[in-house]
Amino acid sequence: MVAAPTEPDAPVREGQAPAVTAGRAKRFIVGIAAIAAIGGAMFGYDTGVVSGALPFMEEHFGLTSLGEGVITSALLIGAAFGSLAGGRMSDRLGRRNSLLWSGAVFIVGAIAVALAPSVPFMVVARFVLGLAVGSASVITPLYLSEIAPPHIRGRLVSFNSLMIVSGQLLAYLINAVLAHWEAWRWMLGLAALPAVALFVGLFFLPDTPRWYMSKGRTGEASAVLRRTLPAAEVDDELARIEQARALETSAQRGAWQELRTPWVRRLLLVGIGLSIVQQITGVNAVIYFAPKILLTTGLGTNAAITATIAVGAISVVATAIGMSLIDRVGRRPMLLWGLTGMAVSLALLGASFHLPRSAGVSFLVLGLMVVYMAFMQATLNTGVWLLLAEMFPLKVRGLAMGAAVFVMWLVNFAVALLFPVLLDAAGAAVTFWLFGVACVLSLVFCKRYAPETKGMALEDLEHELRRAAAQT
């Protein structure tokens, strides 16, 4: 294990960074996003790669449907605990240092999974890998939301979602190539490469201004802001952050106690609800088990693995479209339109399994999965991750987001564990219709409770959410 670097923890020092031009600020922010969002690529690759490895692992280890669910979901239960620890760790050690730890654990876990000699070893190794995936899933959007200027925060945080689906597409492509040699260990082991890239790249990044200010390190916060904002806006932004920090300090309560405040507790419950919505609507059943679903239509193993590339490709395109719209359309409208489209496509997908097996039905099922994923990735997936990174006050942001993502991973775990069993017991039609019902219920929840956070500075947003919560 590699120790986190000692402080000071970034190539930014007080007085070192003068005011920069808009062009240089943009390049700096893009560079930060590119490195930090490799954490999203790690997340995406390891959630996507198991879909191609499972058919060969099933033969190698003699897995049952329950065994497939256990191996798949071991990573997810690890991710649940990793997300909970990651939020708290990011508040104490900093967003950047916490990502360094996640990258180091990820490298170790990926290598262990690839070399696993038995099912118990594989389950433990995927649990360890999940700790890193879960912590990165919390810290990366948190880091990006806090370092981004308000007018591009939606696009920058959504870039993490783009990297997640890009990692999944990369996994599908590699699966399709390596499937010809049944090289499932290589499929799993290659996950270490993005972790190495993240670990190295993080040494060139600063931490966020808001975390520096929470530790009283005003000079370093100012230095980072001067590389991301016009000079005329730096003092105002520092004052906003300091005002929010002063209000929190005057309360003289810890983060856990702060969660007992009615308006903060309400926000946390909404965040947990959004996390559940993202998972119970079926996205990860498609991501983890797309080849298994296609096999039920009569497609061969290699053909099913190759066809899954279409799911990854549409996810990348749809996420890019969502990124371009999220700061213009807003978070709530994206969620509502997306859930409507998902419900319709799932209803049609369930009905398609009542058709006789044929090559045409296989491609119809694939097409409907692609339509469903387009709605999901462009709207719900992009919107939920962004809202979770924006909606909590500074003092509890890491802890509250960690708690919400903990629940997200627990529900993800339950879906991954039970989906193969439900698919065998109830059939694909009933299974996808159940996901469609979940979309309708989620639409009602989001229409009633999802906040709108478009275009507001995080500190101004905190005041607005506090006021709105007090009125309900």
The N- to C-terminal Cα distance equals 48 Å
Rg on CA atoms, Å: 22 Å
Order of helices and strands: HHHHHHHHHHHHHHHHHHHHH
Q: What average pLDDT do the residues reach? A: 85
Low-confidence stretches: 1-19
Task: State the secondary-structure class.
Answer: mainly alpha
Overall outline: globular
Give the count of helical stretches.
21
Q: Would you report the number of β strands?
A: 0
Helicity, in percent?
over 70%
Multimeric state of these chains? single chain
Keywords:
disordered N terminus, 472 residues, 80% helix, mainly alpha
Could you please describe the fold and organization of this structure?
The protein is mainly α and 472 residues long. Helices cover 80% and strands 0% of the residues. It contains 21 helices and no strands. It has helices at 22-36, 38-61, 65-93, 95-114, 119-147, 153-178, 184-189, 192-202, 209-214, 218-225, 231-251, 255-258, 262-280, 283-295, 301-307, 309-329, 331-352, 359-390, 397-426, 428-449, 458-471. It is globular and about 65 Å long. 56% of the residues are buried. Residues 1-19 have low confidence and may be disordered.
In terms of topology, how is this protein built?
Layout lengths: L21 H15 L1 H24 L3 H29 L1 H20 L4 H29 L5 H26 L5 H6 L2 H11 L6 H6 L3 H8 L5 H21 L3 H4 L3 H19 L2 H13 L5 H7 L1 H21 L1 H22 L6 H32 L6 H30 L1 H22 L8 H14 L1
Summarize the structure.
The protein has 21 helices and no strands.
